[in-house]
Amino acid sequence: MTDNQEVALAGAEAPPTTARRHTNKTLLLFLIAGAQLMVVLDSTIVNIALPSMGHYFGKSQTDMTWAINAYTLAFGGLLLLGGRAADILGRRQMFILGLGLFSLGSLLGGLATSYEVLLAGRVVQGIGGAIAAPTALSLITTLFAEGRERNRAFAVYAGVSGGGAAIGLLLGGVLTEYLDWRWVLFVNVPIGIALMAGGFLYIHASERLSGKFDILGSLLSVTGMVALVYGFINAANHSWSAGTTVLSLTGGVVLLVAFVLYESRSPIAMMPMRIFANRSRAGSYVIMLILGAALFGMFYYLTFFIQGVMGFSSLKSGLAYLPFSAIIIVGSGIVSQLLPRVGPRPLLVAGSAFMGAGMYWYAQVDAGTKYASGILPAMIVTATGVALVFVTLTVVAVTKVTDTDTGLASALLNVGQQIGGSIGLAVLATAFTSASKSEGTSQLGKLSGASQQHLGELLGSAQSGKPASPAAYTDHTALHAFHGVQAHGASQGFLVSAIFGVVAVAAALLLINVKRRDMSQVPELALAAA
Question: Which pick of 309, 313, 411, 431 has the fewest CB atoms within 10 Å?
């Protein structure tokens, strides 16, 4: 779901300037949709397997956030550069290179016997995705004639983006349950190789445009985001006053300020400041950043709650999420019809409010929460909010934008979602860890004897990732108290997500002023990215 907007990048709107090969258009569309599906699947297929990964590597819930952030930081931080690379170095070449790196990263992560190697694989995956995703969408504009043919291609592309999340949930559950967590990564390798071969054989070489890469801007943005996220995670594991935490957070802020200053002056800026001149467009990026922060953290901790506290298997967890995907797929179609009639502001305010309310509902979880009465209703409310918001934000971002900036305007939404998700996950990790430690101390004081000792072992296991003694897992009193601690930590994380939802409502009210008449000429590229 969180990747339903895989991307239109700067240069995606470039007109076709070379003759097309006389290749079956259905085959070309299959190659492009297949590449998009690989990237979209990653967000959900890996999410379901995270608890199993953490158990294998002996890592805590907080530590495992890096398995997500290693990918999202690389993907979001290099997305604009990836789109530029397709223009300068050629779309066919970058399509193959992006798929190759994504497949290589998947293989490396799947073969990992250490946590560090897993993270390295995830980074390589993210780099590959940052190249493949924008290139795949830009290929539609160069390989398919404008009109009915291109509209059909965009419709298939958008359908893959919307349905891919649901496929990932099911596939992740099946592979983790019946094979091993490694297969959620291995599955990309044969698909990637087949798509690379198809791209080499059937996609023509596009004309290369002149230009330069904004390498310094990319380095400043990525290192700044990594430092910021590391600071939040370090605060969760240690304290806010720890030297490493302060240094990392301060360094991250300094680097990001330097990035903004550099981009405002650079003639080759990958993120030119003119794109933020329109208040509503800037507001759409702010809202996406905030809601991305809320959603990524919610999915992460809900997965651990469903499997760790409620005892769901990987497969059952995947099935539990399907209503979320179904509501978004159906709801997005309805919203696209409502948008021209009511305008974006009411939909964004209502959608953000729904998301905030759903997160607050999640925050009521405890050790006895049931799926039908506690999780599903909150999921329905949250998914309704997501359906209202995501298509609307895409349209707002490209309203009144110049033709040359359409791809950039759409791409920045996905950058905001990925980067916001990384920050949000780190912030929620801090809230979860702090609340869990406090509740753990409280629960230890209520027990005595062997149960108190066993609870201490379980709490230590949660922090270190190392298993407790067998006796601790058979002590029902200690287990119930431990689940209460985990549920309390998750509830506080969800509460932070609810606060993000409230902030998004305020941002929508203050920043969005697009009128219905302004949306009459929305670029087709933006609709595909939605």
Answer: 313
- Rounded-to-integer distance, Cα 325 and Cα 3, Å: 12
* Residue-by-residue DSSP string for 37-94: HHHHHHHHHHHHHHHHHHHHHT--TTTTHHHHHHHHHHHHHHHHHHHHHHHHH-HHHH
8 A C-beta contact, residue 422 and residue 69: yes
- Give the tens place of pLDDT for each residue, 357-372: 999 999 999 988 999 9
- In this structure, what token pair is assigned to residue 289? 């950043």
pLDDT tens digits along 219-278: 888 888 888 888 887 776 777 778 888 898 898 899 989 988 988 888 887 778 887 888
- Which residue from 198, 42, 62, 227 is spatially nearest to 125, judged by alpha carbons? 42
| Residue at token pair 């339903």 | 4
H/E element, 342: helix 314-342
Query: What is the per-residue pLDDT for 201?
Result: 84
Residue 400 has pLDDT above 70, yes or no: yes
- For the record, the structure tokens of 311 come out as 């005892």
Question: 159 φ, ψ to 5°?
Answer: -65, -40
Triad 128, 130, 135: Cα angle to 5°: 95
Residues 428, 231 contacting (CB under 8 angstroms)? no
Min mean pLDDT across 14-28, 145-159, 386-400, 487-501 is at 14-28
d(C-alpha 292, C-alpha 287), whole Å? 8
